Amino acid sequence: MTESAAEPLSLRLPAGFDVLADDEHLASEVFRALGEVEDRLLEALSSSDELANTSARYLAEAGGKRIRPLLTILTSLLGEGPDAQVREAAVVMEMTHLATLYHDDVMDSAPVRRGAPAAHEVWGNSVAILTGDLILARASQLMTEMGEEGSRVQSETFERLVMGQLHETVGPREGDDPKKHYLSVIADKTGSLVAAASRLGAMFGGCTEETAAMLATYGEAVGVAFQLADDVIDLTSDGETSGKTPGTDLREGVPTLPVLLLRERAAAGEQEAVEVLRLVDGDLRGDEALAEAVAAVVTHPVTQEAWQVARAWSATAQEAVAGLPESTVKSALLSFAEAVVDRES
Questions:
Q1: pLDDT single digits (tens) 158-173
Q2: Which intervals of the chain form a coiled coil (predicted)?
Q3: Which of 18, 93, 143, 155 is most buried, with most CB under 10 Å away?
């Protein structure tokens, strides 16, 4: 991958990582590794079978932030840096993430992914599910070739991804706290893979187990913070910035944190929360009704409370890496943790 020296680094990395621009040598190393990971990713997804080749490469070629590979590369730089094994681990992390997107879009009946029709809209549910399975199989095969410890991290992460989806699908059991259940779901569905990406980079980069564990804690917390911020952004975005209609989660009945907080308050007898829930639980197929429900939730204190919960997870992520020696990598990790809860999309 050829990089343009004239193009600002801040325009080529997710928000929060622009601090890397302060270290030209490090930035160059990160970009070189990312380019090699991208090439290897497409290679690993390729197949001699035409349908498998097209469907497996479909979402990868549609783009994406590549946050998980980036974290794998960055955390390796706390040790010996992104050698071939680190880069392969970064590929596995992105493949695992891609596979979950194929499955999630089928389960959620999502029509669009990354600005293009979702895979199940193109080939149908069965092909989309099988494509996700194929990608997971290849990711597991690649990780198996990198040793027992890497395979263990990969398999444990995959188990958490599945359990998170299962628990989200069936919902909280009678007597469970819905808010705790939801936080557990997103820790499994989102946090676990970000944690694995951060851990594997440190592990294959030659860092100590203590450092790898520290970075796994960071990754999980930053992943949860990211998803919690998404819950609020779904309500507060202007649509043009986020690329989707504000309140999409409300319309689809997704139990995000602001709504769970509303239900908690309503159960405690707060009349204002009851009135807002009347709108939220109504028929939201019309744009006017949806806009009214969104406005009611946004102006209720639960929206700010949800932001506070997201920021608390961001703070947990920052605290996890506070003990690392000062470096550009540490600054980037801290900056990214702040950025995930300070964004509009």
A1: 999 999 999 999 999 9
A2: none
A3: 93
Q: Determine, yes or no, domain membership for 255.
A: yes
Nearest to 182 by CA among 194, 170, 193: 170
Residues 129 and 278 in one domain: no
How far, in Å, are 66, 221, 229, 230, 300 from residue 237 at the CA level? 23, 23, 11, 10, 16
User: Is residue 224 one of the residues assigned to a domain?
Assistant: no
Look up the domain containing 28 and give its range.
22-207
The three state secondary structure string of 157-222 is: HHHHHHHHHHHHHHCCCCCCCHHHHHHHHHHHHHHHHHHHHHHHHHHHCCCCHHHHHHHHHHHHHH
pLDDT band at 185 (very low <50, low <70, confident <90, very high): very high
Check the CA dihedral 51-102-337-157 and report its sign: negative
CA distance 251 to 294: 10
Structure tokens at 125: 């549910």
Are 37 and 185 members of one domain?
yes
For residue 119, the tally of other CB atoms under 10 A from its CB is 26
Residue with tokens 């040790």: 79
What is the total count of domains within the chain?
A: 2
Instruction: Work out whether the CA dihedral 251, 255, 260, 263 comes out positive or negative.
Output: positive
The phi-psi region of residue 269 (left if phi > 0; otherwise alpha if psi is between -120 and 50; otherwise beta) is left
pTM of this structure? 0.92
| CA torsion through residues 102, 104, 110, 113, sign | negative
Q: Are 199 and 234 in a shared domain? A: no
Residue 16 lies in a domain: no
How confident is the model over 240-252, as pLDDT tens digits? 655 567 898 899 8
